[in-house]
């Protein structure tokens, strides 16, 4: 290994360490939620919206060709402004991507696994939920709505 290679390798390791420290800082210091894949939750077969308390919800999104099931087949749901929602995502068939516009929610829906991220809906309006992973002929029309009022 020559000198240039050693310098390059050292810089790469320093950058890797730097990125790792920043990810931990984002999660712990800035309290930014990082999308996670959950291993202790069974993939579900149906969408479900569960209310736990005032403005506190749990949402199970089932992605399938070519719609998002938010609650027993419904592709549109309503939530009050300021709701904090624990969102779980899975897929019934192929890989889909779930993005809730105007939020930082962007999680892959992978068959057999459950993705998770918490979202707070601070502003009223219609939040379009779109699929961003090509999943077949109906991909472009795969969307749902979360109405916050
Ligand atoms: Cu589902 Cu693209």
């Amino acid at each position: 290994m020559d000198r240039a290679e050693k310098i390059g390798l050292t810089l790469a390791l320093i950058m890797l360490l730097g990125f790792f420290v920043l990810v931990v800082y984002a999660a712990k210091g800035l309290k930014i939620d990082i999308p996670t894949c959950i291993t202790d939750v069974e993939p579900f077969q149906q969408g479900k919206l569960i209310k736990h308390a005032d403005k506190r919800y749990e949402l199970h999104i089932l992605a399938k060709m070519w719609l998002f099931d938010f609650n027993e087949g419904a592709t549109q749901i309503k939530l009050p402004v300021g709701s904090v929602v624990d969102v779980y995502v899975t897929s019934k068939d192929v890989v889909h991507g779930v993005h809730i516009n105007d939020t930082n929610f962007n999680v892959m829906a992978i068959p057999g696994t459950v993705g998770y991220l918490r979202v707070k809906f601070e502003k009223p309006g219609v939040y379009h939920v779109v699929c961003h992973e090509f999943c077949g002929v109906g991909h472009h029309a795969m969307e749902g709505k979360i109405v916050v009022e």
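The chain has one helix and eleven strands. The chain has a mean pLDDT of 92.
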